[in-house]
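User: Here's a chain of 277 residues. Predict its fold as tokens.
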Amino acid sequence: ATGYPLAYVAARLAMGENLPSVRNSVTKTTTACFEPSMDYCVVKFPRWDLNKFKGVSAGLGSAMKSVGEVMSIGRNFQEAMQKAIRMAAPGMLGFQPLTTFESDEAINAVLSNATDQRVDALAAAFERGDSVASIEAATKINPWFLCKLHTIHLLRKHLQKRTLQTITAEEMLLAKQQGFSDKQIAIALGGADDVAVRRHRKELGVLPVVKQIDTLAAEFPAQTNYLYMTYNGTMSDQPVRKSGVFRLNHEAPSTMVLGCGAYRIGSPGGVGLWGRS
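Assistant: Prediction complete.
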């Protein structure tokens, strides 16, 4: 999603060509030594369906066991990660604990030996008070990622001290910038209705913007229209109609693409769906 044709460039380099001489087949303007602007974060998240197969171990290793994946785009890792979890795992609202572990020993087992429940185990470990250092020792996961996930956990705990009436615009914006959905915020606020949260959020002026992935690092006009929505911004890169009415006969023709979940092996199409806010 960067406009950089990795496979094509790698093949040409393997044939003995150098980066300045390889033309970027996507941009049509630059050479392969020209890098895209990286002001966004992409999370590719697997979809697991191991319970559909008898006798299959839930352990994860070098074998390919996922049946599909999603690609989520945000301005930071936390935002993209929570979007991805919601799309890839139906029933999960984001990075927060589920009641799937019967004991601390069960959590420890998944932390030490990766399974398809690894993300659940990380959230459960933070919920019971584990530190980043202790989880790193058990999982060998880079602490950079663990610190980002811990930030999500701490913000969720902070939101639990608020209600729909006491949450401020700054707190609402921070939650959305960290990838929290309206329903996720509603539960953290003590079980408020997610429709009410959405209404209150809009009243507070907390609205998303549409950002475009700059495939040409601002050196030339971007020709590829990779767009995503985020709360980490003040202006949209593309004009957004705010009338609230979608008209097929509008003077500026528009196309709406609706998705219903993760891309899975055997499903039509060739790309995964992007996470929702």
